[in-house]
Amino acid sequence: MTIEQIKSLLSRFYEGQTTPDEERLLAAYFRREDVPAELQEDKQLFLMLAQISDQEMPTDIAEEITAFVNNLGQTEKQPLIPEDKQRKGIIYRLKTPPKMWYRIAATVAILFAIGGMFVHQQRTIATDPFRDTCSTPEEAADAIFYANDIINRSTAPFLRSTMIATEQVNDINETLGKIQPYINQ
User: Fold this and answer.
1) What pLDDT was estimated at residue 86?
2) pLDDT by 10-residue block (mean), the chain, 185 residues
3) CA 175 to CA 181: how far, in whole Å?
4) What Cα–Cα distance (Å) separates residue 166 from each residue in 3, 53, 152?
């Protein structure tokens, strides 16, 4: 086969469009010693694939796949691999649940951690009260206008009632001023 044919076959292989016979041709080509330098990476890939494909398939794989498929719809799961073929590993489990004081200690530790973060945050704010919160003067001006707007909206009802009360006091003073001469007689 020519290098152009191999490259075309490789392109189809990477796109998943080759047949098993074409893949065997590629594998046979890359087992040769005289592969061009531009195809060395592809050769390494095919040699690794050849190593994987040379491994024997377990004889009971069909049973394991069947057991897996059969267990898919069940609520109570059966082991996928029979007990005698499962790998034995060490699993550490507590024989008794933790005592209440363990739970209390864990809760206290969490509360201390949260309190420590709060204290650290307060110290940071206290040590640098004039830290910059705006990155540009325009951003600072916008923040000031926004804060001023909030203050104006929240104090507007009080200002109106104060103005009304002031008008009423002025009316009373004016009325008192009119009747004052009659009271003094």
Assistant:
1) 64
2) 87 88 87 87 84 67 72 58 63 60 76 79 62 76 82 76 81 77 66
3) 11
4) 100, 97, 19
Residue-range domain boundaries for the chain: 3-53, 98-131, 138-185
Spell out the alpha helix ranges (H) of 32-99: 40-54, 61-71
Buried b (16+ CB within 10 A) or exposed e, 97-135: eeeeeeeeeeeeeeeeeeeeeeeeeeeeeeeeeeeeeee
What token pair was written down for 94?
Answer: 């507590």
The structure tokens 């691999």 sit at: 81
- Cα 135 from chain centroid? 28
Question: Do 166 and 160 meet the contact criterion of CB atoms below 8 Å apart?
Answer: no
Among 34, 31, 25, residue whose Cα is nearest residue 1: 25
75: its two tokens: 């609520």
Query: What's the pTM?
Result: 0.32
* Three-state secondary structure call for residue 36: coil
Residue (of 41, 13, 37) closest to 25 by Cα position: 13
Residues in the chain: 185
For residue 127, the model assigns a pLDDT of 60
